[in-house]
Structures are given as structure tokens and as C-alpha cells.
Amino acid sequence: MPFELIIDNGRQQFSPPVHGEILLETFEQGRCSKLVFSALSKLPVLEGDIVSLRVGGTPVFLGVVFAQAQASSLRTITAYDQLRYLRNRDTYVYHSKSASDVVRMIALDYKLKLGAVAQTSYIIPSRVEDNVSLANIIQNALNIEFEQTSQRFLLLDEFGRLSLKTYAQMQTNLSITPSSCESFDLSTSVDSRFNRVKVSRYDRRAGRRDIFVASDPVSESRLGILQHYSPVGLRNEVLLPEQAHSLLKVFNRDCRKLRIHSLCSGNIATLRAGSIVSLSLPDIAQRAVVSRCLHRISAKKHVADLEVSL
């Protein structure tokens, strides 16, 4: 599939003669996308220059050069998208803000370009984030949104625009079958499983803390107690038993990770971490979220390696 890689150094725009493969890697949870390629060493490229990549006419990456490495006559260039700036650490004290408000607040403070920001519903009464990375400040707000509403959102950079999306917006029509990839393998783990969920809400007017616990006795007997604790905001009108059972349904399952190697068929140009794909593999027939995606692009081929959470 043809690609167009352009560097803008502020004085000119040009397409460097790429040597070997272009590597584009995306991650699901708040990590920046990473673009790596090699070209001739005499290119007029400096850190801070803008790099864009289109594949088959589709815009897939816009970022900033952060690193270069010289080896013989070739220079390897590494660029990151806007999420790289969320590594900055800061202290924030905020009141009565949704997670969407937190995204907008940080984007404004750090002069990040905003795209579409889906509206989260839960209003966080107050929160102190002391010496925390911007990515974690946002993710903490999104985690609170999930704990209070069971709704999950994804933060990503869309060709130079910081966006917040629901997972429903990440649906694709891509179907992965044994014939569409070189190989695949499956691993399982209980490291991130919780078979007991305790939720609590402090009622200041009544002067008491209400607690409810939902658990899976069969799983506890087999694995021991693996507890998730979640304080519920006073303004949340969801009943504690409903909240606990809802979270238990999400957390009480093994982590199954599918690795797909050299996916080469279907519309893979826009595929990224967070995308939801359809799996039609032996013993696996379901839709699932891509947690990591590595594109390998050259003049002769374009393939993607995926990690998919089941």
C-alpha cells in the first residue's frame, strides 16, 4: 500500500527517502503513539520538526521529532504524538468537574490541540492530584467515571488532535481470520482479576459509611480473595448493590491476551490500539479491543502486529 511520509522543519516540507520499514506503534491506555523510521543522514531534520504519515491517502500519524540516532550513513528518527506531552507532571486541585472537563482543562493549560471530546457524565466533587503526570491525572478521572457509571472512554491523538472517545466509537468492520495473518498465540492470567468488589459511600448527613460487598465464592475458593475497593461519590444515585455487582461483572474474569502476527488483509490503515475488531479464530469468536498495535510499513508491504484483550 502506498504511503506518504512528510517532514516539516518550519522552512520546507519534504518526503525523505525511507530506508527499510516505518514502524508505527499505538497503545490503549494513555501512552503516546511512536513513529520510527530511517533515512539518509544528511536530511535537514531537527528535534521539534513535524512528521506526518498517510497510508493509502488515510492520515494515520502526526507528531513531533523527539530523538535521532546516527549509524553509518543512516539516521533513525523517532517521533511521538501529542500524548507525549502528558508525561509532564503537575499539581492540580479541582472541584465539580467531569473527566471530559479535566481533559479540556489540561489541553488548555498545555496548549494541546483538541479534537472531539466525548462528554462523560459523572461530576467529580473534588480531587487533589499532587506531583502526578498529566496522563495519570486524566486516567484517574476516567477511572472514577468508570467506577461510578461503568462507562469506559479512550484518550487518543487523532492526527494531531487530542480526542476522547467512547469505545462504541472505536468499532471497526475488520474481521481477523487464520488466513488474514501469519500466526497467532493466546495467553491467560489472573493478575488483574478481582473476585470480590467492596463499594462504600460516606453519608455525612447521617454520619455513617454504607458498605456493600459483591463476591464470587467459587472463584474465591479457587484463587483466594482478590478484592477491588471503590468509594462511591455521595452525588452518585446508583444503589451500592447495583454498583458492586456491575463492577464485579467487569472485573471477575481472567485476562486473556491474544497476539496476532503480521495481519495483512482488510482495511488495516486506520487500525490502532483501542479499535474493536471481530475475531473468527479457532475457539475464539467474538469482538475484542486492540490493546497494542504495531504497523510495519514499507514500499513493498504493510502488516500489523496486534495484542488483543479478550
Explain this structure to me?
The chain has 310 residues and is mainly beta. It has 4 helices and 21 strands. It has helices at 99-109, 134-149, 217-223, 240-251, and strands spanning 3-8, 13-14, 18-27, 34-40, 50-55, 58-71, 74-80, 89-97, 114-117, 124-133, 153-157, 162-166, 171-176, 183-189, 196-203, 208-215, 227-231, 255-263, 276-281, 284-297, 302-309. Strands 1, 2, 3, 4, 5, 6, 7, 13, 14, 18, 19, 20 and 21 form a 13-stranded mixed β-sheet that branches. It has a 3-stranded mixed β-sheet with strand order 9-12-11, covered by helices on one side. A 3-stranded mixed β-sheet has the order 16-15-17. Strand 1 and strand 2 (13-14) form a beta hairpin. The longest helix is centred in the middle third of the chain and has 16 residues, at 134-149. The protein is globular and about 70 Å long.
